[in-house]
Design a protein that fits this description.
The chain is an all-alpha fold and 282 residues long. It has one domain. It is built from ten helices and no strands. Helix 1 packs parallel to helix 5 and helix 7 packs parallel to helix 9. The two termini are 28 Å apart. It binds zinc ion (ZN). Zinc ion (ZN) binds next to loops. Zinc ion binds next to loops.
């Protein structure tokens, strides 16, 4: 499994940093109501289209020493930084899921049945009822989906955070996406731990705490997105992980108080990422 795990982790990091590259485009174009796909990336100074090889996340910026190949205008280090952060997110999630097991990140949510099946296959193999180790595809599928869903949620929060950081209005489309996520995660709540009432109670509490926290974090102007993202984050976290997220976001919020509201979305992103990193420890 180790060699497959390494391949999956490398794959996840490549996808993550490429998504980061796309996220840079989204953060700039979406609030300005520009098409996300057309035209392709170009240098804002000389307008020359970016070559395919110069679009490789992080590496291209380093090789070009932060300058446009055509007009040598400096390219903001923010672009490779976002690509690096997104690659880091998928790296952390993939390493945890593939090397520390299914339960090393909280609340499988949507993946309840898939993960239960993989676990029962593992148990059957351990008991000698299966000749071969559990089918790789079930394990890889569940793990990759786990990484993909958490990444999607983190990238969504990062996108909102960066748009806010740029003092641009958060587009309604993102709020709708967040609402859909919230709805889906609420529908899937019973999957988190079967029909056990105590699990549902804990999930309800973390969802409510998350919603309240999001409201406080985003303030009056952005209360809808704060409520949605907060409730969403709370609904997928275990109480201990929610506590860690709250502590981390509170710390980030304290740090951002001097810089104003524009850092609140990024603070939520940092809080959730910290909670995911720390989740087996708390
Ligand atoms: Zn240029």
């Amino acid at each position: 499994m180790t060699i497959y795990s390494i391949i999956c982790v490398v794959f996840a990091v490549m996808i993550g940093s490429c998504v980061g590259s796309f996220l840079n485009v989204v953060v700039w174009r979406l609030p300005n109501r520009l098409s996300l796909t057309h035209p392709g990336s170009f240098c804002p100074k000389c307008g020359h289209p970016i070559r395919f090889r110069d679009n490789v996340p992080v590496l291209a910026w380093l090789l070009l020493r932060g300058k446009c190949r055509d007009c040598h205008a400096p390219i903001s280090p923010r672009y490779p930084l976002i690509e690096f952060v997104c690659g880091f997110v998928t790296l952390i999630l993939a390493v945890k899921v593939f090397f520390f097991g299914w339960m090393s990140i909280p609340g499988p949510l949507f993946l309840g049945p898939v993960i239960e099946r993989a676990q029962s296959q593992e148990a059957a193999y351990a008991a000698g009822e299966l000749l071969f180790s559990p089918p790789l595809e079930t394990a890889c599928f569940a793990a990759l989906l786990c990484v993909a869903l958490w990444s999607l949620l983190l990238f969504l929060i990062l996108t909102v955070g960066l748009i806010e950081y740029d003092r641009n209005p958060t587009p309604g489309k993102l709020q709708i996406t967040a609402a859909l996520f919230l709805l889906a995660s609420l529908c899937a709540l019973p999957l988190r731990g079967g029909a056990d009432l105590s699990v549902l109670k804990a999930a309800g509490l973390t969802t409510a705490a998350g919603a309240l926290f999001g409201l406080l974090l985003f303030g009056r102007a952005r209360w809808r997105i704060g409520l949605l993202l907060g409730a969403l984050t709370g609904s997928v976290l275990t109480p201990s992980a929610a506590l860690a997220a709250a502590a981390a976001a509170l710390l980030a919020l304290g740090l951002s108080a001097a810089a104003g509201r524009r850092l609140s979305g990024l603070a939520l992103f940092i809080g959730l990422l910290a909670a995911l990193i720390l989740s087996p420890l708390v």
